[in-house]
Amino acid sequence: MALSRQNLPQLAGTDAVLAGTHGAYTIVDATEPTLVIVATGSEVELAVNAAALLPAYRVRVVSAPCLDLFLQQDAAYRASVIPAGVPVLSVEAGVRTKQKGNWTGII
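^ thats the sequence. predicted structure below, dont judge the formating
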């Protein structure tokens, strides 16, 4: 169960099972993405909306409610969500974490 004090929509593609068992999952997919946006919490909706505003790019949006759990997944699963060699943009409100740095190159 995820709770928020904000009035957030239930986004299409939300997968509570993957969120709880894998820590992160693709919520908006793109074939051979040219950009991956990783977001947590209420920022996932912003990331989905941003992806829609970038038609020149093939944008994959990843919901990452628990990066610690995601980092525990095998390399194949992690690569299926965040492919190697694709630029990653991280969206999270006012937080800069070591875990995000692992995926975006920002520490």
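Residues 60 and 74 are 20 Å apart (CA to CA).
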